[in-house]
Write the structure tokens for this entry.
Amino acid sequence: MNPTSDSQADLAQPAASTTEWGKSPGVPEIRQFLQGPQTRGFELSRAVRIFFELMRGFRQLHFVGPCVTVFGSARFTEEHASYLLAREIGQRLAQAGFTVMTGGGPGIMEAANRGAKEAGGYSVGCNIELPQEQKPNPYLDRWVTFRHFFVRKVMLVKYSYAFIAMPGGFGTLDEIFETATLIQTHKIKDFPLIIVGKEYWQPLIDFMRGRLVEAKTIDPIDAERIFVTDSAEEAVGLARDAAVRQFGLTYVPKVKRRWFLGE
């Protein structure tokens, strides 16, 4: 399930200088874009920039190989139980032949990337520019910084055969329900969506299975698509089994990387 040897050699180089991480995103410009109709010139230039941001992500991540994306809070320190569990998950994913993809930041993201590196695997981060600078975690082989959350989420979903969500806040909830909606509406295949931390997530699961299913705003199968576990071994096993048996890991790089395409 690993990329070809040619790809591995090329992937050893980071996508960009770490001095660019957390670069000021020009928040007023983003806000202006989201505040209703703008001048034609502004909206055209913004559409062009979004197109190039998407293409840059596609080219930088084209050769990362079969991924599993790990979501979770940036706020947990390395002593936290969730950090330790995410680190074990990263190790197991790498041992199973997956590239570990995260948002590239600290906390759970760092833990999963760290585990992958410790197991000799490949580790990727998709960063987002924020008003407050954030530094890359030191366990990334490749990372790409995005200006728009929706572009970043496309990348976190596009290359993965499974999604593992650790405890987290608004961002993690957004990623869980974005992925669940894509699966529900068949915009992506029925990839495993695995939530780790039964005690933490139980109120959310109860709300979905009780209130939402009962009110028929979702179907029972929609709630059943989300697996809940406390076990790193079970979470990675679900991801591996689906990737190998159900989806066959069809991704195989067929062309060499081209520097002039930003790869």
Summary: Confidence is low (pLDDT under 50) at residues 2-26. Residues 17-250 form a domain with the Rossmann fold fold (CATH 3.40.50.450). Strands lie at 67-71, 99-102, 123-128, 142-146, 160-165, 193-196, 226-229. The first helix runs from residue 5 to 11.
